[in-house]
Amino acid sequence: MKYSEEQLVSRLQDDSTAKEAFSALVAEYQERLYWHVRNMVKDHHDADDVLQNTFLKIYRNIKKFKGESKLYSWMYRIATNESITFLNNKSRKLKITSEELQDQIINNLESDVYFEGDEIQLKLQRAIATLPDKQQQVFNMKYFEELKYREMSEILDTSEGALKASYHIAAKKIEEFLKNN
Amino acid sequence: MKKETSKYHHKPGFGVPEDYFSTLQSRIMDNLENEQVLPAHDPGFTVPDDYFENLHRKISERIEKPEPKVIPFYRKRIWTYAAAVAVIALLFFANLFKTRPVDSVSWDDIEISVMEDYIDEGYDMGIIDLDSDEYSEFIFDDGKLVDDADFENMNTDAVYDYLEDNVDNPADILE
Which end of chain B is more exposed for a tag (fewer CB within 10 A), N or C? Predict the structure, then answer.
């Protein structure tokens, strides 16, 4: 049975129906959140860790969700924050800068069994890695995840105009990178 | 006199640059070509077989596990050790080398990385009982144990006051 968002939240917040509702929630959102995380952390195993932590956090904090934003944007925000925290911790543990970590991640893609992109797709990933973090997020969400600016605005708490400008700048930089490399 | 026949031209007073229409087609084609520089909207990533079929089970197993108990970090012995490192380092710089003014002492002098490594080790060995989310949020905001705070006015009295407020048993420092 498919529930409306309000019904789903209400069932998630009710102890007697929480587990069943959570199953429905995972089934509904697992792929979208996975690809959101994967586009940020790139590696499948890292994405799996981050995604599981994201769902655990959602489960444990669902009672704090007051419905002030859409459920999906609240979950996307958690997934985004988890991914950023994961990358920050990784660079700190490896004692390298976030830029060096990005380089390392992209270099690893070449031998990653879960990356089947061709040369141009790999080059695109290299180009994305040169962007500032926020532009990377905006570009990934628009270009690969094909989210609407309205949805991105709710998730990133940024105006649609600023997001459009950010995407335009990111796309231009990427085009330049691809033409020059 | 021949009347203007174009249905698009109602003489609103606007003008266009010279050669605008004669070069329009080539400019559109250039833009299209630029757009084609970007490849298909597919990042090229794949996932293992049955990954999504098994994901819910893996998450459920983690939910069933008892949630790690969060113990206030400042009460843990590990913090006592870290505080001791800080005190020793401060005393070392503030008192032994009098030629250097006290007000120049900063956290940069205290080898924060040593404290971070020590805490990392405690976490890896299970001494610090936090799950990874809490650990990352609690300790390493912005990837550092301590932010770039300005401690120029810190003196040893302040350190002692801090330890007195935060360490249950000061004797622990000497362990």
Answer: N
CB contact at 8 A, A140 and A39: yes
> pLDDT per position in chain B (175 positions), as tens?
555 455 565 566 777 888 888 887 777 766 655 555 666 788 999 999 999 999 999 999 998 887 666 555 555 566 666 666 776 666 666 655 555 554 555 555 555 555 666 566 555 555 555 555 554 454 444 444 444 444 444 555 666 666 666 666 555 554 4
Pull the structure tokens for residue B164. 């007195």
Structure tokens at A139: 């570009």
Residue B114 and residue B110: Cα distance in Å, rounded? 8
Distance CA B140, CA B146 (A): 8
Contact B55 A51 (CB under 8 A): yes
Q: Look up the ipTM and state it.
A: 0.82
Burial of A1 (0-12, 13-18, 19+ CB in 10 A): exposed
- DSSP per residue over A37-63, as a string? HHHHH--HHHHHHHHHHHHHHHHHHGG
CB A130 within 8 A of CB A118: no
pLDDT in tens, A80-133: 999 999 999 999 999 999 999 999 999 999 889 999 988 889 999 999 999 999
Answer yes or no: are the C-beta atoms of A163 and A153 closer than 8 Å: yes
Residues forming beta bridges with residue B45, ordered by sequence position: A115
Q: Which two tokens stand for residue B60?
A: 């459920």
Q: Which residues of B110-126 are buried (b: 16+ CB within 10 A; e: fewer)?
A: bebeebbeebbebbeee
> Do the chains contact at A88 and B144, CB–CB below 8 Å?
no
Q: What is the pLDDT of residue B145?
A: 44
DSSP state of A123: H
pTM: 0.63
Residues A125, B43 contacting (CB under 8 angstroms): yes
Residues of chain A in contact with residue B42, where contact means CB-CB under 8 angstroms, are 117, 121, 144
Tokens 């988890």, located at residue: A82
Q: Which of B39, B47, B140 sits opposite A120 (nearest CB)?
A: B39
